[in-house]
Amino acid sequence: MNIYFENTNQRAFGTFPLKGDGARAAIIAAAEAGYRAFDTAQMYGNEAETGAALKESGLARDDICVTTKVHPDNFPEDKFLASVEASIKALDIDVIDVLLLHWPPIGGDVAPPLRLLEDCLKRGMTRNIGVSNYTVSMLRTAVEVVDAPLVTNQVEFHPLLNQDKLLAGAAEVGVPLSSYCSVARGEVFKHPEFKEIGEAYGKSAAQVVLRWILQKGVSVNTMSTKPENIRANFDIMDFTLSHVDMTRIEKITGTGHRIVTQDLVPWAPDWD
Asked: Is 44 a catalytic residue?
């Protein structure tokens, strides 16, 4: 099994855009709910809060999988390693479990930051490496540039956006996907089908969405500040959506609702 899936049990708690006491309370609630994988990034500005909350949670370090991501501003060679060292210090850990490149460089060659990422692995600064927001062509380049396995490509993935081309390309090169914006920042709740499907399983609309993502072969990142929602988002392993329901949801992907565009994030590539 891919180490990312193995360490996260396919479910990770995302920390964007949490800060301060709100981040602390949510992360501790997630730990209490059963989450053992926690996702942060240099860009989020909450690595210190994440590290402190995980210490406060009382979880053993070996039981936790911590993912963080290198900001594109830190891709130059004279900044990259120092930024990762700063992340390790902020998180108050000896080694990062999964280190990702947060975005591809704007209009540039993806190879240089990938080589620096692999250098962090060789130096023992991280146990695993991966990418985020890569297109299929970028993934093909990445697996040629990097000798070590890339454990994930973290991307926007939810049932309002058809990502079948990316999913197929990722499978072709052997890089599993993991999701962010898993409930499309609440946009899925405007579609009654999820609630209707959930009623047959005794599950909520959100749980149906997250289960659909898992059954597509994609690990899930979710975030909430409400303990009851944090628990519910974790509680998605005790039911399986039927082929009929999976197909019904698949039709909704034609909505084409993409949250992360170049208007929102300047590093966003030309998506597949």
From this structure: yes
